[in-house]
Amino acid sequence: MRIHYAHAAEVIVRKIAMNAVRQPANLSIDSKLMKEAKGLDVNVSRAAEAGIAEAVAAEKTRLWKLENRATIEAWNEYVEKHGIPLEEHRQF
Known about the structure:
The chain is mostly helical. The chain contains 4 helices and no strands. Helix 1 (9-19) crosses helix 3. The two termini are 14 Å apart.
């Protein structure tokens, strides 16, 4: 049995876009990539924000897994030894 902890980046970005107070930032971005993005009418600020939101979510997930590693391993050991609690009541 696996314990999952994940965020959908799309949902996070929507929440940010709806509630965000924006702060100007200076970023260094590859000039070829910037030209291509502008040529495709990509909103670079929103794309950068989405990428940062995804990176933050991934880092939070990584840290959560590290902080909870012992508990997850203990649970997995329990399930290997004793099986899934209340398994007889599962309908799948």
